[in-house]
Model the fold of this input.
Amino acid sequence: MHFPEEPQIPESAQSPRVASAAGRVAPTPRPVPGPRSAATPRPGSPGLGPARPAPPAPRPHPAPAAASTVAPAAQERPEGRAAAQFQLIPAPVGGAVDAADEAVDLLLDSGRAPGDILVLTTGEQHPWAAHELSFGEAAYWAQHDAGDDVFFAGTAHAGRYAPRPVIVVAVNGDLDDASVSALSDARARAGALLIVCGDPQSVNAALGAGV
Done:
């Protein structure tokens, strides 16, 4: 099966903002345009009835470093389909969610359908997921099952979410055994593209051990 060529995260689409060790702001390239807020509807979403109150503003995070890509692994999946492309966006634990949001924005801006994208976090829930879960799990998972918009979940829900063409993983917590397994699972469930935002050394070691 042929998959359309996926948008890369160009080094040219970068903007400054990363916290230095001394707490100062130093000019460092970013991978993609700025993120949307957790409560802002994304393109392609018709909305879910009356507007809900916005969740509290997320804590400011240091920005990720410039994006890099890793060539897709030369392997075949059990069902005979080629493995998904793999892109790595270097980001600290505190900036992984921001980097994932920015990657999603770039995918949407380049024409990827919202329902094609699943965003996972290895640590704390994404602010959007935490906000929607406050209205109950039934309504939250109904949005997942509808499959018509970007969906955000934790890697702890690996057995619940369905495969999607693009999976974005924010490594915003420790890469313990469960998270390593979830990364490997995400790679298997991504139909065309897996994007991981996190520490390159840890991510590559985890995927090498988990694949």
Summary: The beta strands are 18-19, 25-26, 68-70, 85-90, 117-121, 151-154, 164-170, 190-198. Helices lie at 96-109, 127-133, 137-146, 177-189, 200-210.
